[in-house]
Amino acid sequence: MATTVDARGLSCPQPVLMFMDAVKSAADKEFTVLVDSEASMENVTRAAEGKDCTVTVTQEADEYRLTIVRN
Question: Are 46 and 19 in contact (CB under 8 A)?
């Protein structure tokens, strides 16, 4: 089961910090992060890749869904 981080409406660095907190506290291998800005999407993607995770991004209207899997 994936942990969901809903960071819509928040500006950086909050979405990145929320994702990093989720990684530290959850034993899950998969995370879903919801953001609503391109900058947040890029920053969370960079942070996840820095933690050796694979990131898949889907965009729906003005929102981004990042599916992040620990390798």
Answer: no
The pTM of the full predicted model, rounded to 2 decimals, is 0.94
Q: What is the pLDDT along the chain (71 residues), one digit of tens a residue?
A: 789 999 999 999 999 999 999 999 988 899 999 999 999 999 999 999 999 999 999 999 999 999 999 99
Domain residue limits at 64: 3-70
How many structural domains are present in the chain? 1
Give Cβ neighbours of residue 52 (< 8 Å, ≥ 6 apart).
70, 71
